[in-house]
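Need residues for this backbone.
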């Protein structure tokens, strides 16, 4: 019989709801452990706890109305109760992400890790500013801190870049790391106005609640901070990264590029000389022969340049509730495997 693994969900918006659905639908044959959701807390919906596992059918059907979790528990949120619950082994953190200092996500993750709970998060702000501190804290507490979904959602680009280039120095990474802007630029190429294209991206659920973060490149800048930390151990600050978004790219620039079989893309780039990290986010005109030329819609891509290999690229979904939830799910399975291997 499989051992149980208790999961606490912090935040119950689109991503953690989708995670609950994934666990409900897939866990029986995929997981080395029996996954149970033992607690949920959400700033708007309230909280619920059950050390034996909450009823998943009831949980995924909870409405989006304020206090809705009172059906299973209490109308007020209580992160601490979920974190401290004896049945909770892993916290899946998907709360609001602050791109200025990573709070309150860093404090939430830190509280969970200090209680010796494993943590997986998709919270870009808290990973951009807190990955180093939280990873160290996790080591001290003998638990895992995972954040695969913070860059390119469920496409496992962090694991790929971190683990698949042994023995060489990664000299450069370059990529398209924001689905909203890539979608907008593509739709403008097809003749849509900027505002119409943005509305579509919002309707598709790619754009941030405040799309300024997408448009001005701040979302990509946070992902560059995460990559720099994950791949090169460098904790960059916002001011270390030159950052320009797509608001300056005009319809006529896009048209002119298109006439010459070129496309505008919002490109993130990190150069690692071994001594120095140089990072930038900027719109760039790419030619037909560039691997980034064919990355369209909300798809993201990252290419890695490393030693004798030259460049290798991964592309895949970079946004979306289910795609991002998959990253949490994959992190949970990875942690479950590690727990089982230590038995
Ligand atoms: N707003 C982001 C994007 C979501 O469009 O890529 C994923 O980080």
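Answer:
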């Amino acid at each position: 019989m499989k051992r149980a693994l208790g999961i606490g969900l912090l935040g119950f918006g689109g991503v953690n709801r989708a995670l609950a659905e994934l666990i409900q639908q897939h866990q029986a044959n995929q997981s080395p452990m029996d996954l149970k959701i033992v607690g949920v807390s959400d700033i708007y919906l309230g909280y619920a706890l059950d050390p034996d596992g909450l009823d998943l059918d009831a949980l995924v059907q909870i409405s989006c109305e304020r206090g809705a979790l009172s059906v299973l528990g209490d109308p007020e949120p209580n992160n601490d109760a979920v974190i401290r619950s004896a049945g909770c082994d892993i916290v899946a953190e998907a709360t609001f992400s602050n791109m200025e200092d990573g709070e309150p996500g860093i404090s939430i993750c830190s509280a969970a890790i200090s209680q010796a709970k494993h943590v997986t998060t998709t919270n870009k702000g808290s990973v951009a500013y807190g990955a180093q501190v939280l990873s160290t804290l996790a080591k001290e507490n003998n638990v895992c801190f995972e954040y695969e979904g913070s860059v390119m959602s469920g496409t496992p680009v962090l694991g790929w870049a971190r683990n698949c280039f042994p023995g060489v120095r990664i000299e450069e990474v370059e990529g398209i790391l924001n689905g909203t802007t890539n979608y907008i630029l593509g739709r403008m190429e097809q003749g849509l106005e900027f505002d119409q294209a943005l509305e579509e991206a919002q309707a598709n659920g790619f754009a941030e609640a405040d799309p300024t973060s997408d448009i001005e490149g701040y979302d990509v800048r946070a992902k560059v901070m995460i990559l720099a930390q994950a791949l090169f151990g460098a904790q960059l600050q916002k001011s270390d990264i030159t950052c320009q978004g797509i608001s300056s790219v005009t319809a006529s620039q896009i048209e002119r590029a298109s006439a010459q079989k070129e496309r505008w893309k919002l490109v993130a780039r990190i150069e690692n000389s071994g001594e120095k990290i140089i990072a930038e986010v900027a719109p760039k005109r790419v030619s037909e022969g560039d691997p980034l030329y064919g990355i369209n819609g909300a798809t993201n891509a990252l290419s890695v340049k490393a030693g004798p290999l030259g460049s290798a690229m991964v592309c895949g979904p970079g946004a979306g509730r289910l795609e991002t939830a998959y990253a949490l799910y994959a992190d949970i399975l990875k942690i479950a495997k590690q727990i089982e291997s230590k038995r």
